[in-house]
Specification:
Largest sheet: 8 strands, mixed
Radius of gyration: 16 Å
CATH architecture: 3-Layer(aba) Sandwich
Helix content: 25-40%
Strand content: 15-25%
CATH superfamily: NAD(P)-binding Rossmann-like Domain
CATH topology: Rossmann fold
Strand order of the largest sheet: 3-2-1-4-5-6-7-8
Distance between the termini: 34 Å
Number of helices: 8
Length: 216
Amino acid sequence: MRKQVGILGSGSVGRTLADGFLKYGYEVKVGTRDRLRLAHWLKQAGEKASVGSFSDAAHFGDLVVLAVKGSAVEFVLDLAGAATLHGKTVIDTCNPISDDQPVHGVLHFFTKMNFSLMEHLQEKYSRIHFVKAFSCVGNEFMVNPEFEGGKPTMFICGNNEDSKNQVKEVLDLFGWEIADMGKAEAARAIEPLCMLWCIPGFQHNEWRHAFKLLKK
């Protein structure tokens, strides 16, 4: 795999993962509609970092990361040019969080229990190889997370085995144990993990945790 990554999204998740890829020698282009927002980041990111449009980032990356608000994913993919992403691995970090306020710390989703956001994307953009990852932890711990209990678990899923293997290489590099949950339908279970992850934060302002799958 070549070391060129396109990041679709300039928020905290996009910048965190961009920094992670840069740390391990990748060239990174972050796609955004507001380049001024990334001016300070770009000054510190080094010579392998660049900024462009969503389309620029989609063309640039052999591996692409989708890191935007769940309600904006189709808009961003269309701006990027979905045809540009045909056959590419796209890491889907997004969760279908609605704008409704949490109830007792529990987020609202705009999807239904038996159909995930990732499944919708895979159905609509069928020639893109989506892999769900980085959706069940806060951005602070996405790269080289350190916990007393050892490496936490990143749950992933996707229909294309080669693409999942690409993402597994990244996750291994970034210091994660990996639990491959299978095909895109597994996103129905993975996406709601962000609800569970957020409850201690909303209720007790506790945000420093991650999940670990224990095996016997």
